[in-house]
Amino acid sequence: MNDANTLTVMQIEGKEMIKKDMLIADIVEKHPELAEIFMEDHGLHCFGCGASMFETLEQGMLVHGMTDEEMDKIVADINSQIEKTEKQVSEPQENLHE
Q1: 62 vs 71: CA distance, rounded Å
Q2: 4, 18, 48, 55: most buried by Cβ count inside 10 Å?
């Protein structure tokens, strides 16, 4: 069954979005730049943990005692960072020789 509610990656405006039910290792594989954000901004060092291979983002955050509201805020922040990064990559660079 391929229900839109069971997908681990959402498509919003054609962009891949992170969800809480994704494996931590899969998130880092697709977006290695997020490891620093998780560690520095949210105090989560899940990417260096062996459990990251089989633990979802939600499971990792629950282990750290996070509430649903905190988890939703972190997921929103992560998706915002992905969107910013993709936007920067797709914008043409200004001519530095002017």
Answers
A1: 8
A2: 18
